[in-house]
Amino acid sequence: MSPARAAVVGHPIGHSRSPDLHRAAYAVLGEDVHYDAHDLVEEQLPPFVDARRSDPAWRGLSVTMPLKSVAAACADELTVLGAAVGAVNTLLFRPDGTVLGHNTDVTGIVGAVLAAGTVPAVPQAAVLGGGGTATAAVATAQRLGAASVDVFVRSATRAGRAVEAGRRLGIPVHLRAWDEAPGLLAAYDVVVSTLPPHGADELAAQLEAAAPTTTGVLLDAAYDPWPSAVATAWSRAGGAVAPGLDMLIFQAVDQIRLFTGRDPGTPLPREQDVVAAMCAAVGRPILAAPSLPRT
User: Fold this and answer.
1) Which of 236, 181, 230 has the alpha carbon at shortest distance from 212?
2) Annotated catalytic residue, options 68, 143, 161, 257
3) How far, in Å, CA of 218 to CA of 221, rounded?
4) CATH numbers and ranges of domains, the chain
5) Transmembrane residues, as ranges (predicted)?
6) I need a labelling partner for 129 at 20 to 30 A (CA). Which of 17, 31, 183, 223 fits?
7) What pTM, to 2 d.p., does this model score?
C-alpha cells in the first residue's frame, strides 16, 4: 500500500521545521505518512489544493506564511475556531473530496505558554503586534480565560483583524499605543509577541533600561534567532519565556491528530512519547504535553 501524504506549504519554506516534527511523530505512532515541503506563493495554493482534494492518499496540509488567509478561502468549510480567527494553518482533505480549514496555532500558543509557566485562572493578557498571528494570540487569551486582551500596535489600522477576531470570540480587544508597552508589559500574566525576528529588539532595550520585575509568561513567536532580545530581557526581569519553537511543536501535535483521523484535542496514543520525539527532532528539551483548556 502506498503511504499517505501530507506536506507543509508556504514561502519561503526551506527554513520550516515542520517536516522534522511530523516525521518524528509518525515514526512513533507507526503511521505510514510521507510528509514533505512545497514552496508556494499565494496564487499557487488554490490549484495545488484542488489537484489533491480528490486523491485519497492526501491527508492534509500544514500552512505557513504568507498563505494562511488564502488557505481559509481554499477550504469548503472552516471549524468554529478557524472561522473566528479568520485564517487557517491546517487544511484537512476529507474522504468526500471536501477540504476543512482549521487553526492549530491557538493550541500551539496555549500549549507553549502552559509548558513555560503558571497562568492564573483569569490572566491579564497582552499581544505585541496586530498582524496575522495576532488573531490566534487573541483567541489564545480567550481560551486561557482572560476577560479582555490588550494589543500593542504601532498602527491601529493594521489591527483590524485582531479586533474582529475578538468580536467573534466574545473577548474585548483594547488597542494600546506601541510606546506604552515598555512601561506596562511587566504587569501582564501572559504576553504573546507576534512580531517578526528582531521586531521587538528596540522594545527589549527599553525593558532592559527600565529594569522591571515580572512573574508573567512571554511567548515570542519568532524562534530564530533564539533567544531573542525580548525573551532575554523578559527572563532577566524574572519572567518565564516560551520560544516560538514550542508553539510550533504543540500546533503540530494537533495537526497530527487530524492527519491521522482523530479530532482536535483527542489524545494521541503515547502522546508524551510523540512530543518527546518531536522535541528531540528540533533540539528542544523534552516538554510535557499539557492538559489544554477547551472551549
Assistant:
1) 236
2) 68
3) 10
4) 4-104+248-282 (3.40.50.10860), 106-244 (3.40.50.720)
5) none
6) 17
7) 0.93
